[in-house]
Specification:
Length: 181
């Protein structure tokens, strides 16, 4: 026992310096990973779509017999931490009095035209670098084949759902129609 105490006394400065370096390194890594992702949503628009008597597909009032719902908005994501963050399994959730439905959003910047229309890539994963803000133009639709979309006539809230790197579900409000009606 005396040997251990004498050993610690002889190397007390070195042991203290090593412990200080190790604790500083661990705290530094911990603080780098601390930080949040901040979300900003802008210009959210919903359009109820239908085919008219002449076969033209266009926007109609929500009281009309619509066939699909299209949406678009801008999303800004800011990573406040010192480490890279990811979002995956991104969905847009619509909640009405009678129905909840989730859709996979599409990135408007990947829009490509083909013979009868255009197509965009789905947003599956977003990587956000440290102290960086991303702006993404998002669009999507809900088709009558997916569910009884007539029950979405009175949408109350729209959320963005995603999972982070720890598999934790993130739910952020995009638009609250219950406050505006």
């Amino acid at each position: 026992m005396e040997y251990v105490i004498s050993f610690i006394k002889e190397f007390e400065g070195i042991i203290g310096a090593l412990l200080g370096v190790i604790i500083t390194m661990l705290m530094n890594e911990y603080l780098k990973s601390k930080g949040k992702i901040k979300y900003y949503f802008d210009n959210f628009v919903i359009r109820y779509m239908a085919t008219d008597n002449e076969g033209c597909y266009g926007s109609v009032e929500k009281e009309a017999a619509y066939e699909s719902i299209e949406y678009e908005f801008n999303m800004q994501i800011y990573n406040t931490s010192e480490s890279k963050k990811i979002l995956r399994e991104i969905k847009i959730q619509f909640i009405s009095d009678e129905l909840e439905i989730e859709t996979t959003p599409k990135d408007s910047s990947t829009s490509r035209k083909y013979g009868g229309g255009y197509v965009c890539d789905s947003i599956n994963i977003i990587n956000i670098n440290p102290k960086e803000i991303l702006e993404i133009s998002i669009e999507g639709y809900i088709d009558i084949c997916e569910s009884d979309i007539k029950k979405l006539k009175n949408i109350n809230k729209v959320f963005m759902l995603a999972k982070d790197s720890n598999d934790k579900t993130i739910k952020k409000l995009i638009k609250d129609y219950s406050k505006t009606s």
